[in-house]
Write a structure and sequence with these properties.
This protein has 2 domains: 132 residues, Rossmann fold, CATH 3.40.50.2300; 100 residues, OB fold (Dihydrolipoamide Acetyltransferase, E2P). By secondary structure, the chain is an alpha/beta fold. The chain starts with a strand and ends with a helix. The model has no long low-confidence stretch (mean pLDDT 92). Strands 2-1-3-4-5 form a 5-stranded parallel beta sheet, with helices on both faces. It has a 5-stranded antiparallel beta sheet with strand order 10-9-8-12-11. A 3-stranded antiparallel beta sheet has the order 13-14-15, with no helix packed on it. Keywords: Phosphoprotein. This is Response regulator transcription factor. InterPro entries: CheY-like_superfamily (IPR011006), LytR-like (IPR046947), LytTR_DNA-bd_dom (IPR007492), Sig_transdc_resp-reg_receiver (IPR001789).
């Protein structure tokens, strides 16, 4: 059995999630429900859960603040949240898991299965990335955690030269001619990096604007990147790209 704990300030949400788990994930044992995050640390110390379902928006102390107060974090976390684009972006940046409220049974089962299939605990650096993203949202030299078939790769954002779509995966080309295939769509990567100098220049490509060395004219044209690669530009994105490259024109 997987020992788990639910932390959510709404009693109904706690009970609804517990019922969903009992019906759909019988190998998850909820050892405690907590509706006041100020009592969560004591409950965690008492029950020593393997998995915590953690609400983000709570009075007195939100989920991120609770995690920051725990050293070390000796359990896996699945965040539960109402739609909050910024919070979700921060969680994606750290490659941690989350569920949208109201929690869907199928998504809950998938999240629990993902937890069961993990061969190693979340890295401290994943939590570092999450908390730094929350406390320093404008930090340019951020790191990002990327899920690959071999595990997590944690890299500086600005090491990414360009990204290309491959069905439900994205291929990242990095400095030093490294390539990573990650289990995220290009749309998700675009949303995660919108605070950084990246631009979607084609349905299949997004580039680091700082790594463009040349623009070649054409119907849409193409750009030459710092590694010498040529990346196509769509007609619909051409004007926006030229504005970004030459804002005073």
């Amino acid at each position: 059995m997987i020992k788990a704990l639910i932390i959510d300030d709404e009693t109904y949400s706690c009970q609804a999630l517990q019922t969903l788990l009992q019906r759909n994930c019988p190998d998850v044992e909820i050892t405690a429900l907590c509706t006041d995050p100020r009592h969560a640390a004591a409950l965690i110390a008492e029950h020593k859960p393997q998995l915590v379902f953690l609400d983000i928006e709570m009075p007195h102390m939100n989920g991120f603040e609770l995690l920051a107060s725990l050293t070390p974090v000796g359990f896996e976390v699945i965040f539960t949240t109402s739609y909050d684009q910024y919070a979700i972006k921060a969680i994606r940046f750290s490659a941690l898991d989350y569920l949208m409220k109201p929690v869907d049974a199928a998504e809950l089962k998938t999240a629990v299965e993902t937890f069961k299939q993990k061969t190693a605990p979340s890295l401290p650096s994943q939590l570092d990335i999450l908390l730094s993203k929350i406390t320093q949202p404008a930090k340019v030299q951020a790191r990002i955690a990327l899920p690959t078939s071999e595990g997590l790769q944690i890299i500086p954002v600005m090491d990414i030269l360009y990204c290309s779509s491959s069905s439900n995966y994205t291929i990242l080309t990095l400095k030093e001619k490294q390539k990573l295939t990650i289990s995220r769509t290009l749309k998700e990567i675009e949303e995660m990096l919108d605070e950084h100098p990246f631009l979607r220049i084609h349905n299949s490509y997004m580039v680091n604007l700082n790594e463009i060395k040349r623009y070649i004219r054409g119907e849409g044209g193409s750009v030459v990147m710092s590694d010498g690669a040529s990346v196509d530009v769509s007609r619909s994105r051409k004007e926006l790209l030229l504005q970004k490259l030459n804002p005073g024109r």
